[in-house]
Amino acid sequence: MKKRVKKAVIPAAGFGTRFLPATKAIPKEMLPIVDIPTIQYIIEEAVAAGIEEICLVTNSYKQSIENHFDRSFELEEKLKASGDLEHLRMCEDITDMVNIVSVRQKNPKGLGHAILCAKDFIGDEPFAVLLGDDIVVNPKKGAIHQLMDVYDKTGKSVVGVQTVALENVNKYGIIDPADMVNEKLMKVATFIEKPAIDQAPSQLAILGRYVLTPEIFEKLETQPAGKGHEIQLTDAIDRLAQDEPVYAYEFEGNRYDVGDRKGFLQAQVEFALNRDDTRQAMEEIIENLGYVKDPEFKKEKEEPRKVSE
Questions:
Q1: Where are the alpha helices (DSSP H) in the chain?
Q2: Of the N and C termini of the chain, which has fewer Cβ atoms inside 10 Å?
Q3: How far apart are alpha carbons 272 and 107 in whole angstroms?
């Protein structure tokens, strides 16, 4: 009988060098989009999909991530004493949203190795993987929830993909589609980690969301180092696909690469414009800086920009 996906792994052991000097002392996952740490958006997506347990794969300087999702008794008592019940409930909700454990990736051997570090936590169950550099917004159904729906129908591993520009294929794991099941779902022939532009079999890139069967661990345990002398998850999935069907699903949603400065800044602006409590302030900032010359912007002040569904 097919098991339900109840567990998720979120790798969070990277050093975030693209955001130095900020990440010298602060984990990149704790850098906020407006006033919420990026990793909280990822965990909220998992919880909304029905995930019950999450394993954070971290390193020795990522304790602030664990602290963020733990109780802060002194802060809670201060908020309670001052009558600030709104922020008290906010802090309690963060702590209570899901059961979180963490394991250490003692050596930086790549994404595949990070997933392997969670093997004991996962056991023999299917599981979700959400990468912290990718925030995906879909008000109807989150990206990982869409993949979990595919797993429920197929019982096989599935990766989330979207089309990227040809000049960017060398930044991602790229799939070579085999058979189209429907408009968005396909079986995959091969997976290639960061191919050269002239060797990419498609422009469908794996973008930070996976549902994997536990058979992936056998592949990871025997996976030789690949690109960057690291154990690549894409390479292990490619080997898995030689033994059993592996699917790709073109998920719906606006994706923000918050591991990249441009994507991080774009998320700041668009998230602020889509929040009732920050929209006016962001519009005024943009307008006062003189950057807005598009007359359509005036219309958006009366009709706020909606995230595509």
A1: 38-48, 63-68, 73-82, 85-96, 111-116, 119-122, 143-154, 216-221, 233-241, 261-273, 279-288, 296-302
A2: N
A3: 37
Rounded Cα gap, residues 212 and 209, in angstroms = 10
Contact 5, 248 (CB under 8 A): no
The b-or-e profile of 41-70 (16+ CB within 10 A means b, else e) is bbbbbbeebebebbbbbbbeebeebeebbe
Mean pLDDT per segment of 10 residues, for the chain of length 309 residues?
Answer: 89 88 92 95 96 93 89 91 92 91 89 95 96 91 96 95 93 89 92 90 93 96 81 92 94 93 95 95 88 57 49
Structure-block tokens of residue 201 = 């079999």
3-state class (DSSP) for residue 260: coil
Domains, the chain, with CATH or none: 7-273 (3.90.550.10), 274-309 (no CATH)
Tokens of 127: 């599981």
Q: Does pTM surpass 0.70?
A: yes
